[in-house]
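Hey, sorry to bother you again with one of my protein questions. I've been staring at a protein lately and its backbone has me curious. I owe you a coffee for this, so here goes:
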Amino acid sequence: MRAHELVVSPTDWIVLQRHLLKNEVEQAAIIFTSADHSEDGVQFISRATELLTDADFDHQSAYHISLTDQARGRIIKRAWDLKLSMVEVHSHVGPFASAAFSPSDWSGFSDFVPHVRWRLRGAPYAAVVVAQEGFDGLVWVDDEPTALDRVIVGSEHLRPTQLSLPRRWTR
C-alpha cells in the first residue's frame, strides 16, 4: 500500500491555520513542495508557501471560492520557475463546515488538476481542506486521486479525516 504525506514546519502549519480559519469566508494558500517519489508513495516537502489574498479570487464566500485567471497563471508559473509541485490548501468555514471536499471542490478538481499536472509535466499534485475539526487531503500521482495519509508537522504525525474519497461525488 502506498502512503502519501505532506511535511510542513510547525511555524508554517500555524501560519496556514491562522490564515485559513481567520474569518467566515473560505481562504486558500498554495504550498510549493518538492515531491519525493518512492515505492511507498510521495512525500511532499514544503519549500515555500503563498497565502492567497482577496484580490486572487473571482468569487469568495463561506461556501465557494474560485481563483482569477491571473492568480492561477501566477501560481503555476511560480511552481514551474521553482521546479516544485503544488499543494492547494483551502478552508471550509461556518457552522456546517466539514473537513471533507465538497461537490464544488470535486468539480474544480476535474478541470484544474489535469491542467496543472500537464503544465508541470506530470508532477504530483495534492489538495488539503481544513476545517475547525480537522483536515482531509487528496493526492494525484496518476489520473485518479488517492488519500493523503498524514501531515507531518515537526515530530507530530497528523491524521486526516479521510472522509472525502468515500463521499466522492460523481463528476
